[in-house]
Structure formats: structure tokens, C-alpha cells
Amino acid sequence: MVNRIRITAIISSLFLLAADAGYFAPQELGTAAALRDRALEGSEAYNLAASLTTEVGPRLAGSPGDWQAVRWAAMKFKELGFDRVWTEPVPIDAWARGEEMATIVAPFPQKLVVTALGLSEPTPEDGIEAEIAHFETLADLMEAPLGSLDGRIAFISNRMERTRDGSGYGPAVQARSRGAIEAAKRGAVALLIRSIGTDNHRVPHTGGMRYEDGAPRIPAAALANPDADLLVRQLGYDQPVVVRLKLETERIGLAVSANVIGEITGSEKPEEVIILGAHLDSWDLGTGAIDDGAGVGIAMAAAHLIGQLEERPKRTIRVVLFAAEEVGLVGARKYLEDHLGELRNHIIGAESDFGAGRIWRLSSGVSENAVPVMDAIASVLEPLGIERGGNEAGGGPDLTPLRGAGMAVAGLDQDGTLYFDLHHTPDDTMDKIDRKAMDQNAAAYAVFAYLAAQYDGRFD
Amino acid sequence: MVNRIRITAIISSLFLLAADAGYFAPQELGTAAALRDRALEGSEAYNLAASLTTEVGPRLAGSPGDWQAVRWAAMKFKELGFDRVWTEPVPIDAWARGEEMATIVAPFPQKLVVTALGLSEPTPEDGIEAEIAHFETLADLMEAPLGSLDGRIAFISNRMERTRDGSGYGPAVQARSRGAIEAAKRGAVALLIRSIGTDNHRVPHTGGMRYEDGAPRIPAAALANPDADLLVRQLGYDQPVVVRLKLETERIGLAVSANVIGEITGSEKPEEVIILGAHLDSWDLGTGAIDDGAGVGIAMAAAHLIGQLEERPKRTIRVVLFAAEEVGLVGARKYLEDHLGELRNHIIGAESDFGAGRIWRLSSGVSENAVPVMDAIASVLEPLGIERGGNEAGGGPDLTPLRGAGMAVAGLDQDGTLYFDLHHTPDDTMDKIDRKAMDQNAAAYAVFAYLAAQYDGRFD
Known about the structure:
Number of strands of chain A: 14
Largest interface: A-B, 30 and 30 residues
Number of helices of chain A: 13
Distance between the termini of chain A: 41 Å
Radius of gyration of chain A: 24 Å
Largest sheet of chain A: 14 strands, mixed
Oligomer: homodimer
Helix content of chain A: 25-40%
Low-confidence stretches of chain A: 1-15
């Protein structure tokens, strides 16, 4: 076995050297490796996330905390010596949460831990008291005839599956995003869902939802997983289950937020930018540590490491801290709008918005020609425990508009096994973040950004 | 090594056979083993805990939920065919929690997750706003001079250590039980502690506290662990940290609860009882699943298994579901008072009040003469993965008064590694309980109770 492994290693090395040789000078690869190793010795990533969650905390788009975060970010970019720092205003249709309460009234009265879904309408001031109509999935609910839920609270109890790559989220989250529309069409007066999350703690998971013209805008909320279990157990007694739900929410109207941008300016092609993204806003329940204080720290720290090199890289490294991701990629869309004239200068981007787990894979979304360049970058990431993935990366939520406009992307894929335990809950707090994992992330982003900035060709 | 292990095994077997032979008839050992195996095939333990937490839920001593639990228990004993079922009233000085709120006001405003300690006084209606005086331990606080905390909120941040046997609890819990007394003596206007718990979720741990004549009765509360971390981080900025605390609590006055008792009556010595204990009350934040719905289920299920044998055991198996454990062993003390005349008939007891983990050890608190009898019982428990422990068992909190009066006890020691993640929190819910572990517990209690009932001698 030993011999075989050794031979494979030698062949790999030869192959990687060959791949590298074509795209990067040895000195560039050496600088990339040095950036990587410096990050592992200790980057600013963890400190930045700690600072943001400690000094600002919750920062729902359009809230006072959000504006504090904008000020924080601009100040930090300056403190870290970025060459250019600016903000680009993003108008927000602000929403706020008030008190929220749910109780099982019958057959066995018990309080439930509940939270309104983001952007939900409030209940009437006295609340809603109605019998539960239980569906295991949104698909089951959609088989119920129109009118069959008249006067009921629809309850969808599907439980999200835990996976490393977060693939359990997509199927489960439909109940949250479309549930209120489909329940309302069938006559329901409110929607309750089991939290879209993999934990079993009494912390509910909020998150965005939608309404649709032609269906009443009914209030919608998520139960913490143990509370959803309790409701399911009470439904098992084959007696009518009645729940009282009260949600205070408010559409506040126009507020201003901002995309906050910091650059390490390129020495040869300053107008061409490598985008490192994260989003600055958070939901209101937690302190936005893993979503997305971690990403903010990683992106800023990676560019900061590059900024400490003796020479600036050829292209510009642009860190974009997007506004209002959680409420519908508002900042990301505004960024696209603001930069339509210079899209072709957006060479490639990557966003960190999947928590604080270690990166285990480099995927890409580049032209066929550029795949070997990404392979070459991957070879420098290998000592970080990062394997090379495929070429179907999406690039992260805030890069969706830019990706749609043709920008190449990289996916520095994090281990998300624990991410959905915390996602959108009060439990999204700094203690969930490991300093060493943050340094590994910063190392990978620094290597990627530096080499992408040095590479002479295009990725699209 | 193999040979040595084999020889040890043979010697052990011989020793155990020898030990068994002296105290129990082969048929008795066979019945005990059959009870054990039947329990593993499926006992009522899990179902009982599920029923209690689903149909009653929170049951703080003296609250309406507590009285519901008393009714539930009496009904369940009857449904399960116990020979005698009765209640013994326990007067309670009832206390209730209202709204509670804490916020860091400066330097960086953020909400904190907080809960009043059990029996705490309320704050004034407007709350208390004061600067934090931080101590890492109660011992550190006790070194502060009298008057040095004038007008401050004392904050003790010690973190409980995780262990299998729960030994981290004792040192840490002093901050909760005595903290308010010592802080008040030194002039503090309120006490905040880090939750006495091993988790890192945003669920605070309540629990009993004491006041003392001669020290002002200041309000006292616990922060969830992540919130204590946040407060510590803000204290690290070397600026004054100001917290606003509001606790609504109420002393309701006299309420009535009850010890609920069910018996499988002995066939030869019915007046002599083997006590299987658990407590029926819970704190108000969770549904009292692991503390102590699990114990209620285990004790009832074990006796129920014995009740299904063709013949009644020689002695009576008495399941006592104690009232008001959490608020100071009130039911346990009342039980002692009510049974002073028959204490000598309390042959031996064991209480299940350490969650729903598997039992890993049988310890005992018996006379030297009876130690080999416990060894013989342990031999039947061995296939359950239970080892024999020492002879220093305390027997569980509700047995403390009986133990003090001379009753022998057994300790069926559970794995408590995860217990203090959930203890006294909203997170103490049914989903934390594993059915198979409950069956293993019921098996062990059934074996212990049956053999203790069959043994002709005494344990004290």
C-alpha cells in the first residue's frame, strides 16, 4: 500500500507542477503559499467576526443595527489599511418583528416557541385561534382542494435533512418560502411550519417568505423543532388540535442601507476586480455570527493579508459586503445596477456565506479554458485539506445577479454539517465559531484571490 | 493478555455464582433476568414520559400544571394496574415567573437571554440599570470588601465543566445558590450569573437559589451561555458595562400539591417497602422531560413490569412521585414527616433523577453486611452494561431525608454527560429522550426492586 500511495503522490506532484507551470510563475505560487501559511498562523478573520457580533450584533436590513454595521464595516476597512473604502446606498423596504406567541389551546394546553417568518404580515391584534390542518409536506398541502382549509391554520411538519453540502435545505425550504401562498389559496387563515433547521433546540428558525397576487396575505411563522414535535404528538391523539397564534410585525417603509466596499488596488490592471463577497446584514434573532459575520471576517481578512504583501497584486481585490441579503438579495441587485457599465471588469468572484466550517472543496463556474487555471489554484489549496470539485459552482447568493450577467465564480465550499442547526436562529452567536477554521477559510480566500488577480487571462 | 482476561472472567463468574447463591434462589435470579429482558423488549418508560410531557408539560410546584400532573400520575398508576394508588397532600409556598428581560445598555447595546432564578424576588417595576461588577467565581466575589459593590449588578461568569457523573455541577452551582446572598452583603443591587449548564445554546438555566437573614433579598437571574460570553467580551473592552434587568416574579402563597404513590403490594411482607422514587414537578421553562419525566417513566415502568409477574414479590414495591423537588425537596420532607412511624419498613430505595441516559453503574449505600447482596444484584445487571460501583451512594435528592433517617439506598447511576446541556432550560423536551435507553433504565430498576423485595434480610 505504501508504495502505491507514494507513486500516486509523485504522479500527482508532477501533474500539479505541470498544471501550475502554465499559468503562474513560481514566485507567484510561492507568494500564494506564503499567504496561505501566514493566514494559518493567525488571520484577522475571527477577530473581525467577534468585533461585529460584539459591537453591533443583530442587524436586520433597514434596522438601526444594520446602519451600525455599515459604519462598523467602513471603519474596519480603513483601520485595516484598504486602499479605497466606500459605501453605495441601498434603499430597503424595512420590516420589523414585534411580540410573538403561540399556544396549543386544545387538547392539552401548552406554550409553543414560535417566530414570524421574515416579511410576514401580523395577525389581528387579538391573535388567531383556529384548528390545525396538518400536512407532512408542502406537496401534501398542495393536494388539498381549494377551500378545504377554510378557517384553519395550516401546519407543515417536514423536517430538514442534515448534509455536509446543505443539500437538505432546498427541498425543505419550499414550505417556508411558498407555504403561505399555497395555504392561503386553500382558505387557511395562517401558516405554521416546522423550523427549516437540523437542530433540536427551542430556538426557532426565521427566514424569508413570499406572497403572491391572487392569494390572501396570511401570517406565517415557524415553530422550534421540539415544539413542532409536541404539536405532532398532540395531533396523534386524534382530537381536534386548536392553536392560538399572535404575531406582531410591521412594514416600516423606506430605510437606507448600503453595500460597503473595500479595495486592495491592483498594480497593473486596477480597473479589473476580483470580488470577495459576504453579506453584512443578518436576521434579527441572533447576532449573525455564522450568517454572515463569519463570511465578513473571512473576506476582509483574506484581502487584508494580500494588502500586507510588499507589492500589490496585478488586479484589484474588491471586498463587497452586501446589504440586505436575507430579505431578498436587495444589496446584490443594487450592486449589479450600480455597476452595469463595468461588468466586464468583474473577472471572477467568490462569496463566503455558508457559516464558519472548514472549506473542503474548490468548485468553479468558469469557462472550459479556465478550468485548468482553477486546478492550478486548487493545488495551492490542497495542504488546507481542500479537494478540487466540479465546474458547476453558483458562487454564493449575493453573486447570483453578477453570475447571471456572465461573471465567472469560484465556490470555496465549506462543511455545512452544523450550519442549519444555527441558521436564522437566536443561536447564531460567536461561540459557534472556531478560530482555526476561520484562519483556514481566510487562507483559502487569500490564495484564490491573489492567484486570480495575478492570472493574465480571463475566467469567463 | 487473552489468557489473563479469560482467567479473570472465570474467576469473576465463580465469584458471582458464589455471591448469588447465598442470597437468592436460582428461580429468583431467573425471574430477575426475565424482567430485565422483558424491559429491553419494550417497557412503558418512554411512553409514560411522552404522555406526561405531551399532556401536561411544564409543572412548576404549586402551578396549575403541577396539579394536572398529580391527576395524571394517579390516573396512570390506576391504568397500569397498581394495587394501591393514593396521594399525600404537600403544601407549597408557590412562586411564579412573569416577564423577564435583560439588555446591555453600554458600551454596545444588545439584548440578552435571561431567566430569573427560582424563588428570586422581582426587580422594581421599571427594572434595574446598573454597572456590572464582574467576578469569575463566587470565591472571587467573596474576596470583594463589604460595600464595594454598592449600586452594582454582580456578575459571576464561571462555566460548569462537563463530566459523566455530573461532578462539575457541585462547584459551579454555588454561584446560583449562594450568589445573591454574598453579592447583597457587599452592596450589589442584583445578581447575574452564567447559566449553570454545559451547553452553548440561547436557553437559560433556571434553578433554586437562597436568601439569608441579614442580607438584602436582591433579584437574581441567569444568562444563557452565549449571552454570558457576549457580556464577558464586552467587559473586555475596558469600558464600563451597564446592564438593564427586569424580572417579574411573584410569591403566590399557599398552594397544594401532592406526593403521588402507587404500590405493587408484597405477598409475604406487604408492610415492608422498596422505594422507587422520582419527582413529579419540573421547572417552568421546559416540559420536564429529562428532569424528571424520564425518572417518573422509569420508576413507574419498572414497578409495572414487576406487577405483571404471575406472583407478587415478597415485599411491596412503592413508587413515590415526589412533589416540589425543584423548590427545595418539599415533597420529600413531607413524605418523611408523614411516614415517621413506619421508617423501619423502608427497606431500601433508589431514585431516578438524573435524566434519560443509560445506567452505567450500580452504587450502594448499605450496611457492610448487605454489600455482597448488592453485588449479587449487580451480577444480573451486568448484561445491561452496568458495572458495580462503591458503597457511598446518596440515593438521589428526594431520598435525602429518608437516607438521613437511616434508610439504605441504591444508586443506579446514569450517564450524565449531556444532562446539564438541558437541565432546567426550555430545552428539556421529549425529543431529548431515547426509547432504548429508557428501557435499559426500566430493566435495571425492575431487577433491583424485585431482588430487593425478595431478599430476606435487611440492607441497613
